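Q: I'm teaching a short session on how sequence maps to structure, and I want students to see two examples side by side rather than one. Could you give me a first protein with its sequence written out and its structure tokens following it? Keep the formatting plain so it prints cleanly on a handout.
A: Of course. Example one:
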Amino acid sequence: MSRVNSKGFSLVELLVALAIIVVTVSMASIGIGVLSSADSKAAVEIIRSELELERINSQAISEDFYVKLSNEDKGIVIYSYRNGSLLYTKKLGTRIGINLSFTDADNTTTKELEKGDSLYIMFSKESGNVSVFNLNGSVINETQSLDGISYIRTKIDGGTNYQDNNNITFIIKGRKTNKLTLYTKTGLFK
């Protein structure tokens, strides 16, 4: 009986191990790509749902609601406010970037939401259209009295106002780019 030398791997064993490694790495990279593109799709849906909720609340409840999108060190964050008080926050992710495209009758302007920028959005109580679309303004809460009842009214002062544009497109950048268009005259989305 002869002994087989078992000090190394055969060529077949090495090829099988290499094939397993290649398949595992390719599956992982495909999974990461799908997750990255899902981030921008999820961000579009979060922005849409938050703005629709604020528009509905503005028309249904006699209080001021607004949304602030902020580009911070921890990524894009959405803040939801009612009468100047923070209701909740939602983080869109660190791999998400937002460009804003403003279109009026004559031209289109694109602006990136850079680190430290804040975007304020409010809707009209009467028609649901966009009443405030302000970049880098500041919030002023004023107390007003009507029939002996005090109300807090919110104004956005300073910054750059874009609510008079026909539409505003959110260009959400992750691994893939997704868009959401807000029509300022109606407050509706495409």
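Q: Perfect. Now a second example for contrast.
A: Example two:
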Amino acid sequence: MPISWKPEPVMSDIMTVKDEWIDYNGHLNMAYYNVLLDLACDHVFGMLGLGPNYVKERNASFFTAEAHVCYVRELSAGMPVKVGLQLVDFDEKRAHFYEELYHAEEGWLSATSEQLCLHVDLGARKVAPWPEDILANIQSLADAQSSLPRPERAGRHIEIKKKA
């Protein structure tokens, strides 16, 4: 049955920052921002038909080829968070998406992540086209989010600008 997507970022369930994820600076260690963002990604990809059963049944999956995280505001232990995911672009083998990590109660932005994923044939360990049904699911999400503006932080790169 096709998913009825809304014309908005797909929101994750609320998650909680765990005590053991806090580093010696007294805030969420950078690795665990990625854990939270990845859990939200897995949730959406599961909705697209790319969950654990997909790997078992089709011997295929998706791998992250590139990711860019921006840390905007610190998180502390016990804080509730949620993630919104927007599909930015896709083609026959790739998906480019953008996520925003928010404090779930106060609404402020904590971090962003932009990623490029590749569909992979696990038997050959090579990039392969999405199957037709998965491509249709991705197209459905793209259609639903087509009215959303491109995220302002998407496409960023790292550099130190030299003073003139």
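Q: What should students look for in example two?
A: Point them to this: The beta strands are 10-11, 15-16, 60-71, 80-90, 94-103, 109-121, 126-127. Also worth mentioning: Residues 2 and 136 are 9 Å apart (CA to CA).
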